[in-house]
Specification:
The chain is of the alpha/beta class. It is built from 35 helices and 24 strands. The structure holds N-[(biphenyl-4-yloxy)acetyl]-beta-D-glucopyranosylamine (26M). It is an enzyme of class 2 (transferase).
Length: 825
Amino acid sequence: KTWKAGMRGIPNTVSDITNAIVYHVQSTLARQAYNLDNLGAYQAVALSVRDDLIVKWNETQMQYTRKQPKRAYYLSLEFLMGRTLDNALLNLGLKQQYKAATHKLGFNLEDLIDAERDAALGNGGLGRLAACYLDSGATMELPLWGYGLRYHYGLFAQHIAPDGSQLEAPDPWLDTDNPWEIPRQDVTYDVRFYGHAERIGNGKAVWTGGQEVLAVAYDVPIPGYSTNTVNNLRLWDAKPKRGFDLNSFNAGDYDRAIQENSSAETLTRVLYPNDNHMLGKELRLKQQAFWCAASLSDIIRRFKQVEKPWSEFPEYVSIQLNDTHPTIAIPELMRMLVDEEDVPWGDAWAITTKTFFYTNHTVLPEALEKWPVPLMEHVLPRHLQIIYDINMAFLQAVERKWPNDRERLARMSLIQEGEPKYVRMAFLATIGSAKVNGVAELHSHLVRETILRDFVDFFGKSKFANVTNGVTPRRWLDQCNPGLSNLITDAIQKPKAVWLKDLTLLKALEPFAEDSVFLKKWALIKHNNKKHLADYIKTHLGITVNPQSLFDIQIKRIHEYKRQSLNLLGVIHRYLTLKAMTSTERKKVNPRVVIFGGKAAPGYFMAKLLIRLIVNTARTINADADMKDILTVVFVPDYSVSLAEILIPASDISQHISTAGTEASGTSNMKFCLNGGLLLGTVDGANIEIAEEVDSNNVFFFGHLTDAVEDLRHQHKYHPIPVEERSPALAAVLKEIEEGRFGDPTIYQPFVDTIRLSDYYLVTDDFDSYVEANKMVDDAYVKDPEEWTKKTILTVSRMGKFSSDRAIMTYAEEFWNIEQFAIKF
Ligand code: 26M
């Protein structure tokens, strides 16, 4: 029997739901229904939905405890959840009822949904992927838990200063009550830092002294779509172990008394805002160690309930490491087994290496985590000893396989020699895991051929796999684009509860590409989504954009490798070309709206400078009367999950134009295509697999391939040729910037110089073919609008592979060896 709302006390009739909401208004919030604002109404509705989630959460967890299936744990320092209310209502199948109930109370449900703040506990792709995987895990009825940190401040809010530059403001998202978490003051663990580790023989040691901090669990229920399963995301908060030091307090030294206190609480204060860049900060290392130690204590406590020998631990537990951020969990599990549970070292290592799995998300050298040995010795003295012991045994095995190969030993050592020495976390994650994977075919290939090449030689190929990323079609189609989702449902004659769980069924849409009535309906939905975005842009930025234009969108973290620079330089080139035309010629041109969005890491000078140039270029172009209704440029500030839900359904074209070989996968490329936006991209990451699926006719590719990149960089360095010779078109663009057309050129000189003088990301090499590709886009869009619409239908119909359900099932079957476990009601 499958679960239905209304069972086990979950209200499902409109009047029951209305009563539940009124109850929360009056009793939980202690407010009156007649003078309630949208925020208050949102909170009452959320509390009512939370009650529903908790009923199913309890049932799910009870059945897991009773049957003890093998479980998987997803360790991620980031879960970029966005908003929860709409998603929860859709997954529970209660949206219509709540719409009616809130209407009865005098509210519009969509306004209440909009009152929720985003949970921005992540930077970008890696964090959003973790959120999609939780949704898919629950939907596929897998016993999968997430573990992360309860940051009090999420990713900073982005403002644009009058001069066009990015300003960062804190994101105190917990200042308004968070109804989606359940505090568990009873689930706590001690975590130690600093102090002294003394070896006592047999590989064991005793670690004492230092600082002890308390980890407190907060549980976030994760409902599956149209299932009974409600899984758990457990986030740790840090608390001082003892309130405060009474001695100092009594002696009148108040500052000293609360010092230890505040030091504990800084641990979970804020998410580090770096993306694809390593930063060797002590507090970041403590965040990692704190979260890993608490999560493992919790996992071990649960394992002890089954009363099985330690050797069976990997039969009950698999742990996925989301990048190297949780790698310290490997020595931590060794420490717990060896020092605290008396498991012999060799047995402990066998257990550990069957338990962990490591996903790599980048091959950029500056993003690979390395911690200075002196820092690690100071903060985690016992872990460093264990790392040295692991390294010793490992290098002995390498020496046995390749005797007298000192260079190889130096290359493969967990310790990078130098002053100071560094611990190489990707290597530790690799040797401590049963499997290692990249996130798209090309990326996994590069992992095997470059950063982990020696390790492939040592362990053999079978340990190194690929799992191409995916996205949840619930949030990224049904929730953000209900018009399209409903049209698809009508067309393919399958209930949503069926096709949204088996996205390959979208292929039944293909024949509709030849149905002219359907084409019109399809095009109208896109048009309405564009109008919706145009409204947003008008109200928030005061810029008028014409929904008849081609909407061209690039939204992602601002980073040199992602080449928003190429997009901007292309926009300026377009502007110059249009300016050179007569006004009659211009009237014939296909109008375009180019939209940028994304945050720069606060310490990333070049990325912040680029934002400033984008904003000021947009101002110049939008103020030019010649460009009216022909070219409009918009920088949407404070890009977020919720903004993505408005932007993605409105795109005709989206840009994914990283230097070949640099973008591990990309996931927004999948979201755009799933919403009928076509790709303009390089042959990189998951773009390649998208083109394989949807047919390369439906993708606009340009630029050099991965193979060429190394040689080109070599040429740049040793045989530089001036931009004027390599791309006259680009040289003309740079000249305009340098002559001050978009504001004081001295400000932008460092940007122009990187392109002119080093150009590590090969903007000059790809510029002309990028301009060409854009012409192809214009032609395809203008010459035959119906053909364009067909392309978008065929694209959507062939996107089935990119559901995160497929990805999570691959992890479940090929890595974790866990089974689907239906919750019975
Ligand atoms: C590291 C050290 C200190 C502070 C922060 C970090 C850090 C944080 C996030 C490093 C990397 C981070 O994220 C990298 C990331 O988002 N990678 C992206 O992962 C996506 C999901 O697999 C891919 O689709 C993207 O291509 C990849 O760039």
